[in-house]
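Record type: monomer structure entry
Structure origin: computed from sequence
Chain ID: A
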Amino acid sequence: MNPSPLRVLVVDDSALYRKVVRSVVEQLPNVEVIGHAQNGRLALDRIIADKPDVITLDMEMPELDGLGLLRELKERQIKLSAIMISTLTTAGAQATSAALQLGAFDFVLKPTLPDMEANARQLRADLTPRIEACRIISRGKLPVSGDARTPAAAAMGAPLAARMAAAAPKLPCPSLRKTPEIIGIGVSTGGPVALHKLLPLLTPATPPVVLVQHMPPIFTKTLADDLNRRCQIEVVEGRHGMVVQPGRAIIAPGGKQMRIVRDEFRTTVQITDDPPERNCRPAVDYLFRSIAAEYGSRAWGAILTGMGDDGTLGARAMKERGAAIFAQDEATCVVYGMPRSVAEAGLVDVVGPLETIASRINESVLQGAGV
């Protein structure tokens, strides 16, 4: 017996885009488009009446825009997954950042290809994995935000929990007893919210942080600027040749690859146009391999919420060189994909919520200072 279809509401003020999005979503298996709305006010009425599982949501609409609708949903405690359809502009990136903070599940870029067929193909490629992730959340009753708590073993099933326990390292990683010289972080879906919880907890004495957040160009700069206003450490988008230093977190720029290189005087980041890995650019694997090569056991790596398995190969390279690997726990992930992959591979030394990861980093800094 097939499960009931995922129910989707399309919200966009453009009749043409409503048609395009609806056509794309209707082609997905076991998905039902229950209707559309041309502004947030009408969408709110439909959401209250019809209770969709997912909405695709435009930003700029009359009467009530996308951000306004998300605020209404939050105030009314209406739970659903919202996928924003954003423009590749500074204003679009800023609005999307705000939407993610208000609880939007994820976003896709509004395609700007020469013809509508090409736009539809691109939109389908971008929407499909996100709709599927929403289906898992909806049907599996997994938490949509880090505020929810579910027992990880129960959510993943006893057989998987047993396999992960068997695969987990049996002895404490020696590098956990030392203050790391560098920390690498990889994150995807749910990442902006996770980073807004994790990075403000870190002190100015934190070792250098280099991180990959799967995002397009412009969006990573907006994310870095927003985090920099909220954190004790400096948070910047990476530039070629930028120095890696304590108290600074460098975010890989969207659409580029980032790696680190060391000489006898300093460590810097290199920004390249190397090909995507695992369909990702920037890719966590790409960054983590360079950390493994340059720092070995003097590094820590952390894999946070996200779809897919980017970061597993890079974490393996770091682990083989003696680094310690952390993973965000299932109960606090928006999507337990990337952390699950490294956990199942037996690469994780510490599993926990973001607060635990931050505490371990801060404790290591105090130990290194002899406090």
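Annotation 1: The CA atoms of residues 194 and 354 lie 7 Å apart.
Annotation 2: The first helix runs from residue 15 to 26.
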